[in-house]
Here is the input.
Amino acid sequence: MWQAQYITTTDVPAANLFATIADVDSWNKWDVDLEFTRMDGAAQVGAGFILKPRGGPRIKIFIEEFQTPARFVDVAQLPLAKMRTVHEFIQSGRRTTIRVTIQTWGPLGFFWRKIVAEKQIRSAAAQTAAFVAYARERFQHGDV
Here is the structure.
């Protein structure tokens, strides 16, 4: 299994970050690499959704862990491989540590690591900054 991680901190509360990541249908509002995400029903363990990256095929993803307000884990079902994305929000006083972990495994895990996972970890700083800005704005304006 291959794994990489990105860590940063913010002043946005963990509960607000978790609520934002749990709103799966809104991911394309902060992730410019996505055309859309579609989930039928509520975000919870075992729930599935479709993610459509710009210029890529639709991908079926399942929520593996859903621990409010600290941990959101999803697993993408790729051809002959899987990719897990872990978002952790660790509150300490007025600061929240955000830890994003990407893992790939399976017979074609190396292939998916090279064409998807490594790109995601390289763009994690910019993507996380956009995510935090969206969460901040969303809760300042009461759009929840």
